[in-house]
Design a protein that fits this description.
The chain is an alpha+beta fold. A hairpin with a 5-residue loop joins strand 7 (157-163) and strand 8 (169-171). The strands form four sheets. It has a seven-stranded antiparallel beta sheet with strand order 13-10-12-11-16-17-15. It has a five-stranded antiparallel beta sheet with strand order 5-6-9-7-8. Helix 7 (230-242) crosses helix 11 and helix 11 runs antiparallel to helix 12. The chain has helices spanning 3-7, 15-21, 41-54, 108-117, 135-140, 181-185, 230-242, 254-261, 289-302, 332-338, 370-386, 416-432, 454-465, and strands at residues 11-12, 32-37, 57-61, 79-83, 90-94, 99-102, 157-163, 169-171, 205-212, 221-227, 250-253, 278-284, 310-315, 358-361, 364-367, 394-397, 402-405, 408-411. It contains 13 helices and 18 strands. Helix content is 28%, strand content 19%. The structure holds flavin-adenine dinucleotide. Flavin-adenine dinucleotide binds at residues 60-70, 84, 104, 127-129, 133-134, 136-138, 140-141, 143-144, 146, 205-206, 334, 337-338, 352, 359.
């Protein structure tokens, strides 16, 4: 049976388009057999049944903006990309309780438009990427938001609906009892939870999720702290977070700020960067004007205690995009981060995949102890410098105890193989140093084997739920 017979007229099989879908912004390439557009949950169920009959795997993509992590390319050859971008319903929204329930095709821009229209008291946490990205895709990858109090998407979402490889539907938490309010407010229901089995897994196709929205802050501001003492900065920020100061710090090496963020944009208020190797951007989201005064006083007391640090407090300008709970108002920051080697725009807006920009990310778990962060960043620096790549570092504080180190590898397309090899080597270095991957790009990086029976149990669940391998997986499989 041909693929078109199995999947019907919504299967797209133009070879040029499929070639593009199998490409990434780094060296990984996978052979894609088709792109199937589905419009509703029943369409997803039909698709998995057809995939089982045709004996091919499906690789779900919500809006396909996973730039630097694989874009739309599956991990392995021979899959049909399941395009969910036309499932665009916003199913529920509560300003009172702070949540929005969406289908996979709903974008950041769609939800920001809804919040604006409703004069919401809530803001949407979002990544520092295009506003065309999907909230469900971001959740499925366990993506992080830039700034904001709900930094780690997967910890601030619930009520997933997903289609299994045999077409059955499962729900997480209270959503299994229907779409009532508790389905949108509780991550867990009675008994075992399925939630983390549905993200970074390839076990099911997520067709609905509830995303939590924090309150809009009152008098938000941005503290900028620059100095050489990375460990001291991290320790000071951890203490502030532990005290309950509502900050969402990120620390960058100077090269990242100067050569990427400020390549085409400016700091608010025409500020120039004080000297120092590390730049902490510390957006603060106070709950009231009294909190704003107290938060500011706490930051002004804590930051100067870090040796050699210079700090300034700035308004949280909407031009700072996601830090201010808005998409970037123009393409300056994204263009500066991506179009670095003379690449030309071949269409509207920023699109590193279309325009051949070289980018791949690493993402590694570290703690919020200054010594750990400094050690993780030193491993990154050593490996990337040895590979002759520019070193662009970011550390996101996820909580008072957890942080993520995010190197960005930026290179001309001709150096894609070299950069991808350097990332794979870095991932091994980081695992060996006690900083495992938190998220991995398709076809690069990989996950080492677990010490006890964890991999075996996860493998058994895969075999039980998807014996024919109808859903593309592998990205997070150990090996
Ligand atoms: C300059 C720049 C800045 C960036 N900043 C950030 C950032 O701050 N934070 C961040 O997290 N990322 C960031 N990214 C990476 C990326 O752009 C975002 O993560 C983006 O949200 C992913 O695209 P998407 O939401 O359209 O997801 P998609 O591309 O639709 O999905 C991503 C992956 O998730 C899985 N998936 C998607 N939908 C489903 C589903 N319905 N069911 C099961 N599995 C599914 C698939 O494996 C898919 O490949 C950045 C990229 C660039 C280039």
């Amino acid at each position: 049976m041909s693929l078109r017979d199995a999947f019907g007229p919504d299967l797209h099989d133009d070879p040029a388009e499929l070639g593009e879908l199998g490409r990434t912004t780094y060296a990984h390439v996978a052979r894609v057999l088709g792109r199937l557009v589905v419009r509703d949950v029943a369409g997803v169920q039909r698709a998995v049944r057809a995939a089982a009959i045709a004996g091919v795997a499906l690789a779900p993509v919500s809006r396909g903006k996973n730039w630097g992590w694989g874009t739309c390319a599956p991990h392995a050859d021979g899959a049909v990309v399941l395009d969910l971008s036309e499932m665009r319903a916003i199913l529920d929204y509560s300003d009172e309780l702070g949540y929005v329930t969406v289908q996979p095709g709903v974008s950041v821009a769609d939800v920001v438009a809804l919040l604006d229209e409703r004069h919401a008291t809530r803001m949407l946490p979002m990544g520092g990427t295009t506003a065309a990205a999907s909230l469900v895709g971001h959740l499925c990858e366990r993506g992080v938001s830039v700034g904001t109090l709900y930094h780690d998407r997967a910890s601030h979402a619930c009520g997933l609906e997903a289609v299994l490889a045999d077409g059955r539907i499962v729900h997480t938490g209270m959503r299994r009892f229907g779409r009532g309010a508790v389905a949108a407010t509780h991550r867990f229901g009675p008994g075992p939870g399925l939630e983390s089995l549905l993200t970074q897994s390839g076990l099911a196709i997520v067709t609905e999720a509830t995303i939590w929205l924090p309150r809009r802050p009152v008098d938000p501001f941005l503290a900028l702290a620059v100095g050489d003492d990375l460990a001291g900065l991290v320790d000071a920020l951890r203490d502030l977070m532990g005290m309950g100061v509502r900050v969402a710090p990120q620390i960058y090496n100077r090269a990242k700020v100067e050569r990427l963020f400020l390549a085409r944009a400016r700091l608010p208020g025409g500020l120039t960067l004080p000297p120092g190797a590390w730049v902490a951007m510390i957006p603060a989201y106070p709950a009231s004007s009294q909190h704003a005064a107290a938060d500011r006083a706490a930051l002004e007391a804590a930051l100067p205690r870090v040796p050699g640090v210079r700090a300034a407090i700035l308004p949280l300008d909407p031009a700072m995009g996601p830090f201010a709970g808005r998409p970037y108002p123009d393409d300056d920051v994204l263009s500066g981060m991506l179009y670095r080697f003379g690449e030309e725009r071949r269409g509207p807006g920023v699109d590193p995949q279309r325009d051949g920009c070289g980018i791949v990310w690493g993402c590694y778990a570290t703690t919020m102890a200054g010594a750990d962060v400094a050690r993780a960043c030193a491993v990154i620096e050593r490996r990337l410098a040895a590979a002759g790549l520019e070193v662009f570092q970011a550390v996101h504080a996820i909580s008072e105890r957890a942080a993520l180190a995010f190197p960005q590898l930026s290179f001309p397309a001709a150096r894609a193989a070299e950069a991808t090899a350097a990332l794979c080597a870095l991932t091994l270095d980081m695992h060996a140093a006690g900083f495992p991957s938190y998220r991995v790009p398709a076809g690069a990086g990989g996950v080492p084997r677990s010490l006890a029976a964890t991999d075996e149990v996860v493998g058994a669940i895969h075999r039980l739920l998807d014996p024919a391998g109808a859903l593309a997986r592998g990205k997070y499989a150990p090996g």
